[in-house]
Amino acid sequence: MIEPILENEFHHDGRGPELQRVVWAYEGKILKGFEYYNPEDVYEESNIKNIILEKVEVFSMAGEEVHGSILANGETKAAIHRIVDSKWKTQSRI
Q1: What span, in angstroms and rounded, lies between the C-alpha atoms of 16 and 18?
Q2: d(CA 35, CA 83)
Q3: Would the pTM count as exceeding 0.85?
């Protein structure tokens, strides 16, 4: 099961938000966030948006040709989803 998150802040119109910059820390070892425009934004510096990532265990970023539009299915315009029933997250750790 997936849960859309930040639907109003980070969304798609079929192709997704337009990435402007990826923000890294520790010489490219830790992903800190993104700068982007949503589909309806006018491309002006004052409209650029930011997502800051904190305490993220795992993330996946892929085009629709990779995930087959499983998440971008028209039921939501959210471009970020939480996987609620992840088998990986619930398995015991060594």
Answers
A1: 6
A2: 23
A3: no
